[in-house]
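We were asked to recover a plausible sequence for a given structure. The inputs and outputs are reproduced exactly as logged, with field labels preserved.

PROBLEM: sequence recovery
POSITIONS: 106
GIVEN STRUCTURE:
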């Protein structure tokens, strides 16, 4: 990424399940880590139930429960210029995707 980049969007897209069983509900999340590699507060764990980081620099656009529709089904937007100095890392290693209620959706 060049030094001119000011924003990043991480998109998650999936298709509606076409086999037997319940629809998939994938969830995107992001952890804002400090210099000790930890999340300093709950607001810095951004996901469908906490849509913005404490400073507003990282935003989840909302929960898609089925994957229906074209393009990204969930997005995490990062305003790089707005990320506080005490946040050392928001990387692919700290962005996560999980299957909600995976054992019930087999």
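RECOVERED SEQUENCE:
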């Amino acid at each position: 990424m060049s030094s001119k980049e000011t924003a990043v969007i991480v998109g998650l897209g999936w298709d509606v399940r076409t086999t037997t069983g319940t629809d998939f509900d994938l969830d995107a999340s992001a952890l804002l880590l400090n210099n000790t590699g930890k999340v300093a507060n709950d607001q810095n764990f951004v996901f469908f139930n906490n849509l913005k980081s404490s400073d507003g620099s990282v935003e989840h656009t909302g929960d898609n429960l089925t994957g229906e529709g074209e393009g990204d089904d969930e997005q995490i937007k990062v305003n790089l210029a707005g990320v506080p100095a005490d946040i050392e890392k928001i990387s692919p290693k700290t962005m996560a995707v999980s299957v909600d209620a995976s054992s019930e959706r087999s």
